[in-house]
Specification:
Keywords: Membrane, Transmembrane, Transmembrane helix. The chain has 274 residues and is mainly α. Helices cover 55% and strands 7% of the residues. β1 and β2 form a beta hairpin.
Length: 274
């Protein structure tokens, strides 16, 4: 498993595809490429027998077919099938960006050219470079993945919707007035992890870790922590406001007054909701 932080600042855990599974998918794609190559070559031979062109044109035609199948096949498939090829589709694999998002033609083109030139064929020693780089990479990335900024993951089941924080109504107005520019991802990620795992933590860890995170967050934001509220309420309010601004920056928030009679002990009611 690896953590991918999306553009909305939400962390997703996705299983990384390793060498055995990727090798099996590659072999399936190689068989499909061989069939396509044989069909196109047979078609070119028919044209040669009928038209009898110059030898240079014949050699150029064979070269275009060979390079087109090797490089064009993965590029076209991953672009049209959103990060999949027939081999990856059969084994439940998918190419995604470093942040877990879908790839586009630019990523597929970089991966395809990197695989043809470096990883597998021209300089790759029939896949030796791809195997070595994937084995040395924590996320199993070959050279084409590194150049394109992509990762191959298992995608048999649908990627779950990211969990979004829900702000306590009595702290929504306070969070709305915050300047969140100081809350960087290195601090937001442990806060989201704390909120996600809150139901599984012991009461002592909930208090101590939450108190430490509140001090760190409020110190980074340069504001005093609201007095009398549990750490989880404060952290949920900050994260919810941050996600609201990221996901819907043009939508004004619903202003809710801060009430002094709000319940302050029902912490479990304000855990992340999917």
């Amino acid at each position: 498993m690896a953590v991918f932080t999306t553009g909305e600042g939400v962390a997703l855990d996705l299983p990384i595809a390793r060498i055995p599974t990727r090798a099996a998918a590659f072999l399936i794609d190689l068989l499909v490429q061989a069939v396509i190559l044989n069909v196109l070559t047979a078609g070119l031979l028919l044209l040669v027998f009928q038209l009898r062109p110059d030898d240079a044109w014949v050699a150029t035609g064979f070269l275009l077919i060979f390079v087109g199948v090797l490089a064009g096949y993965p590029i076209a498939c991953e672009t049209l099938l959103h990060g999949r090829t027939p081999g990856k589709l059969a084994l439940g694999l998918r190419v995604v960006r470093d942040d877990g998002g879908p790839i586009d033609f630019r990523h597929a083109l970089t991966r395809g050219l990197g695989g043809t030139i470096v990883d597998f064929w021209m300089l790759g020693g029939f896949g030796a470079v791809a195997v070595v780089t994937s084995a040395c990479s924590p996320r199993g990335r070959r050279v084409g993945d590194i150049l394109a900024g992509t990762v191959v993951v298992h995608n048999v089941s649908r990627v779950p919707y990211p969990a979004l924080a829900v702000a306590p109504p009595w702290l929504a107005a306070w969070a709305h007035r915050l300047d969140l520019s100081g809350l960087t991802e290195d601090l937001a990620l442990p806060v989201r992890t704390y909120l996600t795992r809150f139901p599984t933590l012991t009461p002592e860890v909930r208090h101590n870790l939450g108190h430490a995170l509140v001090i760190a967050v409020c110190g980074r934001l340069r504001v005093p922590a609201p007095a009398g509220y549990p750490p989880m309420h404060i952290l949920a309010a900050v994260v919810a406001e941050r996600q609201r601004r990221t996901l819907a920056p043009a939508v004004p928030p619903a202003r809710q007054p801060v009430t002094s009679t709000a319940p302050r002990t029902q912490e479990a009611a304000w855990v992340l909701q999917a």
